[in-house]
Design brief:
heterodimer, A: about 180 residues, mainly alpha, about 0% strand, B: mainly alpha, 22 helices, globular
């Protein structure tokens, strides 16, 4: 972990000026947000595993069903996937085709800007539509746990905000964080 | 619609995330065609809010625990002790180890990374050409998507309503066919290249030691595959039990996994899960757009317009999936293409389970096909060979895989004999 933090501060040296100061603060905030997000997705996977194991034990050992387990696991998965997507954007690990980048390393800067803009446009749409849907589903309740569906659908606008925050930093940080260590 | 698909290809070529590209073009289409926009959020949530898909994070987690907890290594040692003194012995062991590993993780890339770093150096040490050694890993690692338990089968069953246990029953012989064909090919190639018998002779003592060591590890594939075959567990249940079992074995019996390593491992599996399932959910949005636009029906009409000969039609479908497979991610192909082609093949009287096996083998071949095959890339980076050099070596294995694919396509009984 110390490795990640030093690496993180090192990247600040490339930034100068007032606009960059804001960006630096945003990057710092994103760093901690992302840290929290990785804990959240690790925790959600734990929940999924434990809940489903309890379901199996209940069924085969005690011959009873658990009315809440399937729903809880599914909703955990929804949050895991959407928050995890934001983590992947921060770490630049979302699956993509990087043939052009490896063939023409010089095009990387332009391609990275383009990729971040695509993420920004996507997230803006999701944020806009996601809030609208939230109102629509607020009256709905999940069939088994009676949970308001807003809890489930809130994952979309939350993920959209996270994606926008990470994409903004990725857009202006021209250099790959890993590459700076090698220099 | 064509315009949007061209746009998607352009975005992807420029390195935009596959998931986000697929999602964005679907969103743009919905916006510009006055379709109610709430369908977008609804599909993005319901695309992953599926009980059957809960098996995916658990498979990934079970695979990671097996890898870090020393279970995989013990199984590879067992595979290694099975093979005696034959030409290309190490290559054959690599294929068998890939098949075992596949039975755990269900991910081709994970298999290529784990076995590549282990087997490529030892093959090179014994005089294998670097490109040849890497090509063995590159072509054998995609077996993971064909041999159950496989994430692809879970996704396919969810799309078509086919029974997962039937897919497992047909996938096992299919995976074995491809594996055996590759073993025979590598045996002859090694012989032709003059690679001597490079492995210790079969030693029953080593075999029994390896078996004793790995007996606990073998419990995981037994739960994952046997539990579903026997009708005891659903795939998700089998995966939940396998995760807890593998955790118990690696912490308390093998003691290779420490408690403090557990949370980082969980986070790693969670990231992998999110990466794959974010593609699935965006692809399900695109699949909805395509279906609501009547593309599957149009495709049936136009394909049957070309020819009514079922053999020719199946060849065309295989060809299309193969081509798409070379530049698309496996789960995205399944979610987008299966709903398009299923009406065509069922009108030809094909069993959806059989079609599932064919699509899966196609995507497995796509994983090694240049220029975009991810297993090819992983093997190249682990084996430290240039892509263009490795590409030459995978041509022959790919041809062999295509021959097996055609055989399975036109002789359904070859894989369907266990399915009722």
């Amino acid at each position: 972990m110390s490795f990640v933090i030093t690496l993180h501060f090192y990247s600040h040296k490339t930034l100068k000026g007032a606009g960059d100061r804001i960006l630096r603060i945003l990057d710092q905030i994103n760093f901690w947000i992302n840290k929290v997000c990785t804990y959240i997705i690790g925790f959600l996977l734990t929940v999924i595993t434990v809940v489903l194991f309890i379901q199996v034990v209940a069924r085969y050992v005690f011959s009873t069903g658990t009315f809440w387990s399937d729903e809880l696991a599914r909703y955990s998965m929804v949050w895991l996937v959407l928050v995890g997507a934001a983590v992947a954007v921060r770490e630049k690990s979302l699956m993509n085709v990087d043939v052009l980048e490896s063939l023409f390393p010089k095009s990387r800067v332009i391609l990275n800007i383009f990729q971040s803009i695509i993420i920004l446009v996507y997230s803006a749409f999701i944020l806009y539509i996601g809030f609208g849907t939230l109102e629509l589903v607020s009256a709905q309740r999940s069939p088994n746990m009676g949970l308001s569906m807003s809890f489930v659908y809130a994952a979309l606008p939350v993920a959209a905000v996270l994606l926008i925050l990470h994409a903004i930093v990725n857009l202006f940080y021209r250099k790959d964080r890993r590459e700076e260590v090698k220099e | 619609m064509i315009l949007y698909l061209v746009l998607a290809l352009l975005f992807m070529a420029m390195g935009a995330s596959i998931a986000i590209t697929i999602g964005l073009v679907s969103i743009l289409y919905i916006f510009f065609n006055d379709i109610p926009i709430n369908i977008i959020t609804q599909k993005l949530i319901t695309g992953v809010d599926v009980s059957a898909l809960l098996a995916i994070p658990l498979f990934i987690l079970a695979g990671d625990i097996m890898g870090k907890g020393g279970l995989a290594q013990r199984i590879i040692r067992l595979a290694s002790s099975l093979i005696g003194r034959v030409s290309g012995g190490l290559g054959i062991i690599t294929v068998i180890a890939c098949m075992f590993f596949a039975a755990i993780s269900g991910s081709g890339v994970a298999t290529a990374a784990a076995l590549g770093s282990l087997m490529i150096p030892s093959m090179v040490n014994k005089g294998y050409d670097k490109g040849f050694a890497s090509s063995i890993v590159a072509t054998a690692s995609p077996l993971g998507v064909i041999i159950p338990p496989s994430i692809s089968f879970i996704i396919y069953a969810n799309l078509t309503g086919a029974s997962v246990s039937d897919l497992y029953k047909a996938g096992l012989p299919a995976g074995l066919f491809v594996g055996i064909a590759l073993i025979l090919l590598f045996y002859f190639l090694a012989k032709k290249q003059g690679i001597k018998a490079d492995h210790d002779p079969f030693n029953s003592k080593e075999f029994f030691t390896a078996l004793k060591e790995s007996i606990w590890a073998l419990g995981t594939p037994f739960i994952l595959v046997g539990g579903v075959f026997g009708g005891i567990f659903t795939p998700t249940e089998s995966a939940a039990v396998a995760v807890i079992y593998a955790l118990f074995v690696s912490i308390f019996i093998y003691k290779d996994l420490k408690w403090k390593d557990l949370f980082p491992l969980l986070v790693g599996s969670a990231k992998m899960t999110a990466n794959i399932m974010f593609i699935i959910t965006n692809a399900s949005l695109l699949a909805w757009v395509l279906t609501s636009e009547g593309i599957p029906q149009a495709l049936v009409t136009s394909l049957i317009g070309i020819t009514e000969n079922p053999i020719a039609l199946l060849l065309i479908i295989n060809l299309i999936i193969l081509i798409v497979g070379t530049f698309m991610e496996t789960s995205a192909i399944l979610v987008i293409l299966v709903p398009l082609f299923l009406p065509v093949v069922t009108s030809l009287g094909m069993d959806p389970v059989h079609f599932g096996i064919i699509v899966t083998i196609n995507t497995a071949i796509g994983l090694v096909t240049p220029p975009f095959g991810v297993c090819l890339f992983t093997a190249a980076s682990v084996g430290k060979v240039a892509i263009h050099k490795l590409s030459k070596h995978v041509v022959l294995p790919i041809i062999v895989m295509i021959i097996v694919l055609l055989f399975i396509t036109f002789v359904p009984d070859s894989v369907m004999f266990m399915v009722e």
